[in-house]
Structure formats: structure tokens, C-alpha cells
Amino acid sequence: MSDTVKVPQPAGTSTTERENAERGFTASPSLAKNLQTVLVDFIALQLVGKQAHWNIVGPNFRDLHLNLDEVVAIARDGADEIAERMRALHATADGRPAVVAEQTALPEFPAGEITTHDAIDLTVRAVEATVGTMRQVHDEVDSADPTTADIFHEFIAKLEQQAWFLSAETRTPSD
């Protein structure tokens, strides 16, 4: 078996037929691609959050266990909202496992048990990568569809708050 992941085709680039459909705004190929890019990171963030949630051990386990569920809930809501926005704009959302694995910008999360402190650092990196993707495509998305950019703003704020909540666990006051 090859070490490379084969992404099934098509991978989120097709559009719906317009027959008997609403006549509203249709996503351009570049807007659809940017939304797909954000979608796969939200899906991957859900998986990272649950992987950490199931396997953390160590100090402050319970609080972190619950906080990770908050991150997962935001990521699930984000994935659903972005996918539904894509469908409203006649683009096809693609959240298949092979597509997510191939396209996500999130770093790989380790297998097995992980200390609470390591889980915090790795989860914060995953949250920041998801936010980074939204910020990276934001201006192009805003130019094409300010409504979608508004959705990004909501989730950027929620995720940055979670990164702060998580990272506060391992920080010390500055002088």
C-alpha cells in the first residue's frame, strides 16, 4: 500500500443544477475553493478536539476534558455553517475523510495518551491553524461575499477565545 493518500474525485468542486432552484448568488470557483479550505479545517479541528478529549491524562484533567468539548462544539457548528453556506451558494461541500486528511492545514495530532499540558499546546496550535486559514482567505472571501466573511468573523472570535482559555492553563503572569 502506498504512503500517499488518494483523494476521491471530484473533491468538492462541483456545483448543483440550477433547474427549479432559487436564483440567488452563486459562488465563484475561487469562493467555493476557499470555503472548502475552511470546511476541512473545521472538520479536522473536531477530530483533534475529540482525540485530545479521549486521551488526556494529568493535572486539571476534568476542566480540560470539558473545555475540549467546547472547542469541538464550535468546530462542529463551524463545519455545519460553512457547508450549508456552500450549498446555499450552489457549491458542493466535501467532508469525506480522505479529502479532509489530504487538504487540512492542521498539524497531525499524536496517537495515544497525552499529558494535559501537551494536549493544551497541540490543541491551541490546531485552533490557531483553523483561525489562520480563515484569516488567510478572508480578504478574497470578503471581496466576493461579505456575508460569508461575517460568518468567518463570528467563528474567528469564538476560536480565539478558546485558544486563550486553553493557553491560560499553562501560562504564567508576565512581569
Automatic annotation (TrEMBL):
User: Which UniProt keywords are present, listed alphabetically?
Assistant: DNA-binding
Q: Does the keyword Nucleotide-binding apply?
A: no
Q: The Ferritin/DPS domain covers which part of the protein? A: 33-168
Residues covered by region (Disordered): 1-26
Annotated TM spans: none
The GO terms this record gives for MF are:
DNA binding; ferric iron binding; oxidoreductase activity, acting on metal ions
Is Disulfide bond one of the keywords?
Answer: no
Q: Which domain of life is it from?
A: Bacteria
Family statement drawn from the similarity comment of this UniProt entry:
Belongs to the Dps family.
Q: What is this protein called?
A: Starvation-inducible DNA-binding protein
The record lists the organism as Brevibacterium celere
